[in-house]
Predict the 3D structure of the following.
Amino acid sequence: MPRQVLEISHKRISELIYKLEQARLGSKEVLKVLKALDRADGPKEIESWYSRRRETANGMVFTLLASAAVLWVGIATMVATTDRIPAGNYGLVAFISCVVLLVSCMPAMLYCARKAESLDRRREQVAAILDSYRESLCSNIVIR
Amino acid sequence: MQQYCYPLITVLAPALTVSIISFVLRDMIWTYRQRTQAAWLLREARRYFSESEERQQAYADQVTVLHDIFACHEMSMNYHKTARKKNDSLNTAKPNRLPRTNVYLKHGVRSAYLARHQGVIDARRSGLASGLALAVRPAGSTKNAAISGASHPSSTWDTAPGAMTRSNGPSPTTW
């Protein structure tokens, strides 16, 4: 019987490692998952952790979106007040700086949006890993 | 109005651009490093668990071992970070460029695991961080009472003086 229990235990850990490798989680995420495995409120903790990270990413997206809108209005005002692209000592440099800032906001916004989506996907993967581990634990208990 | 606004925009806009780009790049690099570390540690763990030794059979829950591998790794990372902040040249002689300078690469997962569970006191000598050396004392070992240099005869925080109490795992606030 101990040999059988050991084999089951070995199978469980092998499956867990395989799933963690497939999910391509970061080391901090893996540690969170491992801590949550044997806790009753583990899935909730994981859920809230991912929710917080998602909220942060969404906050970044909204901040960048608002910044882009403000920059767009600023650039439009610059052009409208002078009826052309601003010139002079600082005018052209300020205009170019604003355009570059606006352009850099766009990929950053896309990156944050994609990150928020990937966090959702990873949260589902982690939930699946936790569920399958608990199922294997239940089957282990039944065999014992 | 324009003579004040344009110089201000000329200064602020490039600074903001650099901040945004550096934030995104830093986040991308951080994510990549985290994934690399996890993949490497999982590979090492798989190698460790693929061995069939009697010692492994003594430990019932192998998930605890896996947890310890990652916890020790995080502890080592935090130790190096703190050492870098303190500008400790001795401890930052090898900066933490993973996975090359990680303790597991030098000594393997098995060494780290043994150090964690057998209480190797000379862990520092074998390359483990001193933070890890403090953490690997076995449960039930004794520690010195806080007499020397203290204003009180013993530590007032001890609920069980002399006993080395251990938690079930790392504190969530730390990790």
Summary: The domain at 2-143 of chain A is CATH 1.10.287 (Helix Hairpins). The longest helix of chain A spans residues 91-143. Chain A has a mean pLDDT of 85. The interface with chain B takes residues 2, 6, 9-10, 12-14, 16-17, 20-21, 24-31, 34-35, 37-38, 64, 74, 81, 86, 88-91, 93-94, 97-98, 100-101, 104-105, 107-108, 111, 115 of chain A (CB under 8 Å).
